[in-house]
Design brief:
- InterPro entries: Calcineurin-like_PHP (IPR004843), Metallo-depent_PP-like (IPR029052).
- This is Metallophosphatase.
- The protein has about 190 residues and is of the alpha/beta class.
- The protein has a single domain, classed as Metallo-dependent phosphatases (Purple Acid Phosphatase, chain A, domain 2, 4-Layer Sandwich), CATH 3.60.21.10.
- It is built from 4 helices and 9 strands.
- Helix 3 links the parallel strand 2 and strand 3.
- It is globular, with a radius of gyration of 17 Å.
């Protein structure tokens, strides 16, 4: 079976104050860490591909290494603004980038591909945004209102019941958007 592709962001493992800041429904830091690991591994298998769009952990290096060793999948890290501990364990990641333009086979598209811009931060416009290219981001913990007319959204855990989202789920969300190509012929 072909490995699945997932997207996520903003776990903030080891960050007790994120429970209060983002109104997360956890009674303690330990409960949050364990539940985030459980939900990750419930969806992601050992051979699946995960694009983490930043802010994995605010814990110390040894703590973060322990967390990363418990997470399933081949993880590609798109760096956020809290990556100090994760970057001390680079061999855990399939790649580490500031920004990535991902191309996924998509038979429903005319060219057979779906291009996705992966960046920690939301952008109002991006490479190919006027051609149907998607943009996925984190950082905002669900505080930015979704723009129904833009092919972008927050894949952070605070927006998706603390689970990663699959490519199929992303595609379903994008198909509900009201985006129209700006240079399409008008009737």
């Amino acid at each position: 079976m072909k490995p699945n592709i997932f997207f996520t962001a903003d776990h903030h493992f080891g960050h007790e104050n994120i429970i209060k800041f983002s109104e997360r429904p956890f009674a303690s830091l330990e409960e949050m860490n364990e539940e985030l690991i459980r939900r990750w591994n419930e969806k992601i298998g050992p051979d699946d591909t995960v694009y983490h769009l930043g802010d994995i952990s605010l814990g110390k290096s040894d703590f973060t290494k322990g967390i990363l060793d418990r997470l399933n999948g081949n993880i590609h890290l798109i760096k956020g603004n809290h990556e100090g501990a994760a970057l001390t364990y680079p061999k855990r990641f399939a790649s580490i980038r500031d920004y990535h333009e991902l191309r996924i086979d998509e038979p429903e598209n005319g060219n057979g591909k779906q291009k996705i811009i992966l960046f920690h931060y939301a952008m109002r416009t991006w490479n190919g945004s006027h051609r149907g290219v998607w943009q996925l981001y984190g950082h905002s913990h669900g505080t930015l209102p979704d723009d129904e007319a833009a092919l972008s959204f927050d894949v952070g855990v605070d927006c998706h019941n603390f689970y990663p989202v699959s490519y199929a789920e992303v595609k379903e969300i994008m198909q509900k958007k009201t985006w129209t190509p700006p240079f399409a012929p008008r009737n």
